Fold these 2 entries.
Entry 1:
Amino acid sequence: MRILIADDHRLIVEGVKLKLAELGPDTEFVIAMDMAELREAIHAPNASSLELALVDLAMPGVQGSEHLAEVVEKLPDVPVIVLSGSEDPGLMRDLLAMGVQGFIPKAYSPDVMLSAVRLVLSGGVYVPPLLLQERGNGAGAAPMPMPSPTSHAQSPSQDSLEERLRKLLTERQIDVLRLLSQGKPNKLIARDLGISEGTVKIHLAAIFRALNVRNRVEAVVASRRISGI
């Protein structure tokens, strides 16, 4: 397994390497310390053999998030996880909407990072808990625990939302929504359902309208509050 780590702090790089070595003895690392090295790594002849890219949001030579967009565009089959000292929910939403598969604040523990990486490598999307809580509670709302996945209790609003979705969406769109709630990217949803990625995008547009959300991150948050889907 070849993993790209792009970060200009040597201690961060060495710490990430040490923890991700637990993925297996065959884990290899490609290191980029600035934008020039990152660009060289993603344009290298063997770049397609990378299985994961962990990229710092702030590196020498980068402007905003353009370097992340370049990685996502150049390596469409390589999941990208953002490493950042920021815990701004708005920034997280923007980057996840851009196509990255995860956002890990540097304040999180190494064990959380490893769990997030394993989730992404298995085809999922890692959404920080604070973003799920922020979207679930609404701006300015008091913190509330997320509902337990094993709970079968439903409020009237949950019941009505589930009923409305089943009236607005086809069975195939419900299937897409169910896989989306598991954090699966379009490519895996298409493979699991035996449809094209273009068809997945069409279904997602209908799902976004039915849920009254703007993007897949908000759709994931909304879907996880519907126990019957």
Note: The two ends are 35 Å apart (CA to CA).
Entry 2:
Amino acid sequence: MIPSKFTYSMIKPAFGSCYDLIKYKWFSKLQFKSLRIKSNLFDEYYKDTCAIRKSDMIAFLQENSVYSLKDGIGECEATVQIYVGEKENQSMKKSAKIIHEKLQDSFIKVLPNMFHGEFSINHADDYMRKLLEIVK
């Protein structure tokens, strides 16, 4: 929720110059380790990452770097639950807070000792239980 024109402008040259490294397992293992995903998921991560085209990856990363909430988000009438890891970077924590402030009927939960994406990936059973609880 905090757009960064600088990050946007750096993605294409930085990622474009190192994209081919993702095909090397040693490099993918370094990336994978930085994401703090359970080690038994590496093979799927590697396969999926190698299947993403360079242009798609750059477009995805650039769009993420400039995304902002639409003005009409405050009119949302849904009950929204927002989860953010305690160990996520400050930008993610601020983004979660912004969403929470913009949505009247929202709930925010800081997940202790968790990094970005860890709830849905490393704690998939808990995540699914929460989703099923919400849907009911």
Note: The first strand starts at residue 80 and ends at 85.
